[in-house]
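Anyone opening a protein record will find just a pair of labelled lines. A complete record is shown below as an example:
=====
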Amino acid sequence: MALITCGAVAPLGATAWGGVVTPSSVIRAATSAIAGQPSAHVVFVAHAGSPSRTETIVADVGRKSGTETVTEGKAALAIRLSPTHAYVSGNSSGLTTIFGLSSADAKKVGKDWESWKAGTSQYAAFKLDLTMLSVSALLPKIKGTRLTTVVSQGTTFSVLKWTIAATSSIPGVMTTLTVSRGAIMFPVTEVALISNGANATTTLSGWGEPVVVDVPPATATIASSKITG
């Protein structure tokens, strides 16, 4: 799904169905829409300028399971989450530059899958990224969020905007989230502009489509405890 090309931008006002929307009403409606769906397709593309690089994440997330591929140049990583285990596999550069393994540990994994059991802190971290929890996390807090409307090719969208101020340790971020208008208000795209020159775009689609997780065979998995101790 491509980013929306804006045909017109207007201040907050009457909606197509005659009501008046506010940041809080849009956030509540989007929260409800996400809660009512078992799955979504997510594409995340981040660009950094210095050094120049692009990271692309393509994921299908469900309530208790999901799949994800991550690429950055020639580095590639695949992640799978089942209700009982999380699995990671990749090429050598993917395991080291993206996932952060040492070269020695990446060699131990080889072409197999490193695994973590449900109940571990590592599994919990994967669950946040590879389930619908990650979609819910895109929504902003009500305080400080502004609202406009966008009309594109005759279709009206709500646009939420908010800013996170820079600190001594993290850069500032200006975020725009576009939400569809209708009986169900789905998030469509989120664009984050970072004060260090980087930017990231998240695109959502495929609501409710089946999420199929091919669990690696036991013969191709290695428990994380055997990799990092």
About this structure: The chain has one domain: 8-205. Residues 23-35 form the longest helix (13 residues).
